[in-house]
Amino acid sequence: MNLATLKKPAIILILIVTGITLEFSGILDTGKWLAIAREYNDRWWLVIVLILLQAIMFTFALAGSLFLWVVAPLYPPVMSAFILAAGGTLGGIMAYYFSRRLTDDWVSRVENSHTYRLLHKHDNFFTLFAFRVFPAFPHSLINYSSGILQVKLSHFIAAALLGISIKSFIYSKVIYSATTSASIDELLNISTYGPLILISVITLVGVAIKYKMSDKPEK
């Protein structure tokens, strides 16, 4: 086995080990990140740092969504939505290209997901948007599936920006109004996530109807 053959499995192993290490070391403790960010909240460059940190996390399928709990208590909802959408979209683009370098074994795992199969059938903006806006849906699965399928990049970017912006704004509004006392229970309130599910479901139903109509034979 040559060096080139070993390279990809080595990268995957490093990512897995990194994810486990971050989880158990406490580095992903959002309380600690928030405390550090508060110290530099008056610095202009903090926004750039928060965007880049998210991008790095999403690129390697790590928990970039945790930054919601760092960004939302610090900034008003509109600014939070901008930071989270920018970081999520930039990380999504990087993951989109990175996913093409994964091993066949890793690719097969993504290909077995329902998300992959739906994107394979419906490579369009609306399907991507529906996934992005759905509460708690894993962005990394969308990013990697899109990269492997090589979905249209313009659809991918537009859906990421719009979907993450809407979802981030709604969540950020709840967290910002409650400051650091906000909990996951408040985000799980039907009044918070209900509209997101409704938007996602309506979008997917629209996609399904269009797909069925396009399959009808012409008379």
Structural class: mainly alpha
Q: How much beta, percentage-wise?
A: under 5%
Elements, N to C (H/E):
HHHHHHHHHHHH
Please tally the helical runs, counting DSSP H or I stretches of 4 or more residues.
Answer: 12
What count of structural domains? 1
General form: globular
Radius of gyration: 19 Å
End-to-end C-alpha gap? 58 Å
Portion in helices: over 70%
The largest pleated sheet is described as:
none
Question: Poorly predicted ranges (pLDDT <50, ≥5 residues)?
Answer: none
The number of distinct β-strands equals 0
Residue-averaged pLDDT, rounded? 80
Structure write-up:
There is one protein chain. With 219 residues, the protein is mostly helical. It has one domain (3-215). It contains 12 helices and no strands. Helix 3 (45-59) runs parallel beside helix 5 (77-98) and helix 8 runs parallel beside helix 10 (153-178). The longest helix is centred in the last third of the chain and has 26 residues, at 153-178. It starts with a helix and ends with a helix. The model has no long low-confidence stretch (mean pLDDT 80).
How would you summarize the topology of this molecule?
Blueprint: H1 3-25, H2 30-39, H3 45-59, H4 68-71, H5 77-98, H6 104-111, H7 114-121, H8 125-133, H9 139-149, H10 153-178, H11 184-187, H12 190-215
Helix pairs in contact: 3-5, 5-9, 5-10, 7-9, 8-10, 8-12
